[in-house]
Amino acid sequence: MATTLLALMWASVTVYALLAGADFGAGAWDLLAGRTGPGARRRALIEHSIGPVWEANHVWLIFVLVLMWTAFPPLFAAVSSTLYIPLTLVALGVIARGSAFAFRKAVSERWQQRIFGAAFAFSSLVTPFFLGAVAGGVASGRVPPGVARGDVVTSWLNPTSVLSGALAVVTGMYLAAVYLTADARRSGQLDLAAEFRRRALAAGVLAGLVAAAGLIVVHADAPQLWAGLSGRALPLVAPCLVALSAAAGVASLALLAARRYLLVRVTAALAVAAVLWGWGAAQYPHLLAGRPGLTVAQAAAGQATLQATTISVGVGIVLLVPSLAWLFLLFQRTERG
Amino acid sequence: MAGVAGVAAAKALTAFYVAAGTGGGTADPVAARSQMGFSLGWHIILACLGVGMPGLVLFAEWRGWRTGDPWYQLLARRWAKALGVLFAVGAVSGTILSFEMGVLWAGLMDHYGSVIGLPFSIEGFAFFIEAIFLGIYLYGWDRLPPRVHLLSGVPIVLAGIASAFFVVTANAWMNDPRGFKIVNGRLTGVDPWAAMFNPATGPEATHLILAAFMVTGFLMASVYAVAMLRGRTDRYHRLGLLIPLTFAAVMTPIQIVVGDWAARAVATSQPLKLAAMEGLYASGRHVPESIGGYFSGGQLHWALRIPDGLSLLLHLTPSGYVTGLQSAPASDRPPLVTLVHLAFDTMVGLGTALLLLGAWLALAWWRGRDLPGSVWFLRATAVSGVAAVVAMEAGWIVTEVGRQPWIVYGVLRVADAVNPAPGLSWGLVAVVTVYAVLSVVTVYVLRRLARSRPVPVAPQESDVTGYKVV
Fold it and tell me: Which residues have a Cβ under 8 Å from the Cβ of B470 and sit 6 or more positions away?
C-alpha cells in the first residue's frame, strides 16, 4: 500500500510538472513577450490560456505535500526542515505569482498592469527554479533523514540543484510554448502560433542540452543517482526511461517542425514525465538518497493511516476526474459562441 | 495602511512574545510561532470569505435569474469578480501554510504526521473541487446556460464548507489529541479516523464555519454601509447591504449557542485553557464570572465580577467546581494569561454587539419592512465587518495561545516541535514583508474593483464590454 501511495504521489508530482510547470513557463514567456504595445497580444493569449486553470493546476502541489506528510512523515520532516530556505522562497514565489496574476486582471490602468505583470513573470521564473533546486538536493543525497540534519545552504546550492533548477525552468517554458502554439492556432492567431512554434523549438533544444549536461553533472556530483540512471544498479528501468525521454524529445522537435501541434503535446509531456520517473526509478526504493538514506519501508506511516489515506484518495479521485474533465473540456473546446 | 499596521502588529507581537519569554531557550520557537500566527491570521480572513462568499454570490445570481432584476444580476457579477481575486489570494496564501507545517514544525510532522495527515489529504480534494468549479463558474458565466451555471456554483459552496471542516479537525486534534498511543516513547495504535473525529471537532468546526459566515456577511455589508453613509442610497447599495447583513444576523444567535457549547468542551478537555480564558488562578466552587482586568502574580486585577457566574455558566449551579491555573505545575500553564483572557472577552463582547445589530435590523424590518432609518445603524454596520474579523482573530488567539506551552495538548511541547535549523527567524522577516505588501495591494485592488464602472459582462473576461447599469 505504501508503494501505491508513493506512485500516486509521484503521479501528482508529474501532473504538477506538466500542468503547473507549463503555467510557470507561460509566465516566463510573458516576461519575454516584448514591450507593452507589441507584446499585448502574446500576453492576452497567455492570460487566456492559463486564466481558468492555473488555480486547479496549483492544487497538485498541495496534494503532493499532504500525501507526503500523511504517508511518509519522516520524508516530509527531513526535506522541509533541511531545505527550508528554498521552500520558503517557493512559497513566497507562489504568493507573488498567483496574486499578481489575479491583480493584473482586476486593474485597468497600463502602469499597474505592468507592475503586476512584472511581478507575475519574475516569480514565474524564480519559483520553478527553487522547486528544481529542492529536487536536486534530494536527488544528490544532501538531505539526511531526521529533522534539520543537513546543511541548510549547500543542500540546495550545489551543482545538481542548480542544474535541476535550470532544467525545471526550461522544461516549463518548453511545455508552455508547445501548449500555447496549439492554443494560438485554435483561436485563429496563426502569426502567434508561428512565433510560439519557434519558441518551442528553441526551448526544446535548450531543454535537451540542459538535460544532457545534467547527466554529466549527476555523474560527477550524485554518484548514487548516476548508478541508478546508468543502469549499473539493476534493474534497467531507469536507463530505459532516460532513453524514452530522449526519444520523445527528439520526436517532439520533429513533430513541431512538421506542425503537428496536438500530437506534440503528448510527446513533449512524455519527454518530461520520463525524466521524473527515470529519477524516481533510479532512486527507488530510497526516498532520500545517500548514506544512511531513507527507504520507502522506513518512512511509511502505519497500516491504518495508509489504508485510510488510500480510501480517501480513491473516493477523491472519483469526484475529481469528472470535474477536471469538465473544466478542461469547457475551455479547450472552440472559443465562445 | 493595513500593511503598515500589520507590520507594527507583528513587531509588537514578536516583542511581546520575546518579553514574555515563552519561547524557551532560543529565539527560534518564538519566531516560528510569530511567523505561523502571522500567516495563519492573515490567511484565515480570506479563507472565511472563501467559505462564506460563494453562497451569497449564488443567492444574488439566483434572485437575478428568477426575477430578472438587474440589480441582483449586477451584485452577483461584482461579488463574483471580487471572489475571484480573493480566492486567488486565499489559495496562494494558504499554500505557504502547507510549507510551514514542515519548515517550521518539522518535529510535529515527523512524529504525528501519520496521525493527523488524513484530514489534510481529504481537505486537499475539497480544495481541488473548489478551485475547479470556481474556474468553471467564473469563466463559464456566458458559456453555460443560466441554470447549469448556477448549479456549477453549488460544489464551490459545499467544498468550501468541507475544507473548513477538515482543516479544523486537525486543529481540534491538537487541542484534544486522540487516535494513537505512546508506548515506551514510540507511537503505536494509530487510528487516523479517531484522531479526526476527536471530541473537540464538533464544537470547534461548527464554531469556525459559523464565524466564516459572520465575517463574510458583516464584512460585505460594511462595504455598502460605507457607501450609503456617503450618500449612495439607491436600490443597488441597499440590496448589497441587506443580503449579507441578513445572512450574518441569522448566523449570529446560532453562533452564540455554539460558542457556549465550545466553551463547555474546552472546560472538559482543556481545563487550563478555560482557566486562562477566565483569568482564574485558584480552583474552587462558587466561581465568579470575571470580565476585563489583567492577570499578574496569580491574581486577576481590576476585573468586573459577577458572583457565581462562571460556576453557573458551566454547571448550571452556583456551587459548580471550576479548575484554576494553580492545579498544574507552572511549566504546564499558559504563560500569557492576560492576553488569553482579554481576547476571550473581546470575542464574546463583539459577538454580543453583533447580535444586537442583527436584532436592530430584525426589529425595523418587522415593523416597517425597511432598514432602520437611523444613521447610527449605518455607522454600526460600517464597523461590523472589522468587528467580526477582530472577534474571529481573538478566538484564534484564545485557542492557540491558550494551549501553550503545548503544540499538541499534553503530548508535545512547542519547543520540541520547532525546526531547529539555523537562521529560521529570517523567514519571519520575509513573510511579514511580503504580507505587508500583499495586504496593501489587495485592499487597493478591491477598492478599485468596487469603484470601477461599467462592469464587464463576464466577471473574469475583460475583453467583453457593456452592461451599463449604474
Answer: B74, B236, B453, B454, B455
